[in-house]
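Assess the record.
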Amino acid sequence: MDVSKDTLVSCVHSSGVRGTLANQRAAIEAWLSRLPAGSRIGMEATGTYHELLADLAQRKGMLVYVLNPKDVRHYAKGVGMRGKTDRVDAALIARYIAHEHAKLHPYRPPTPEQRQLQRLLGRRAKLSRARAGVQQSLHGLPGLKRPLRNLLERFDALIAVIDARIQGLVNACPQRQAACERLRSIKGVGPVVGPALLNPLEHFVFASADSFVAYSGLDPCPDDSGQRSGRRRLSKHGPSELRRLLYNAAMAAVTSPAWKPLYQHYLDKKLARTEALVIIARKIARTAWSVYTHNTTFDPLRLTSGLT
């Protein structure tokens, strides 16, 4: 299914049959009622436009796959797709699901609280980027110092309102509040990073710390061929805002006695500052998974126990 704000374009892989319907509850429910039980339905993540279809299909017992648009784009290049229309995209997604569904994770709808928390975190990220952009572009211009300060204060006030709503969602559930407090026991994890870590840990089931690191896109990918050993790069295959927050958490963490020796250890190994911070960010993600999964708190002694 190719999803847009107003319409949905479908394609059945086995027959190539295509159709178009309105992205509205009544039209979607009527369309789903005509599908065989247990049908597989794939769509790209499109902000919020795909959520109604994904939720209704999942409730009907369909196997739903919400795909990363980057994966679909690379798949299109891999199979030699040249054009791009809604009908072509629907056929491509159908082909992708037909051939790759065994390796994909079925859609798991978030709770209303999880969805609201994710949206608040996303809005906060956009406001933070806009604030930084305005400050950078107007800084130092004659006669704009006071108006700029007033504008930044209004940005800060709006961000504070969002922070209060995020904290309210966390505090509304005693289990969620306790889990967030355990995550915040990790040095470097503050009132923004804590809920940002908690939301995916609460929503998805990660079999291991490696799985959570891979979800965040902080996993290093090899680039080797024959005798050549290429430089490893991050996959960046996941939510970019979570990576940014983990990196910020790492910058804060390395100023603390708990993380500073580990950070210095990597600097002594001639790693660049950014490389060392990425490693710390990855370790914070691993620690967060362990703290959440095993209902423990942060133990700084475990960070340096294996250093030589």
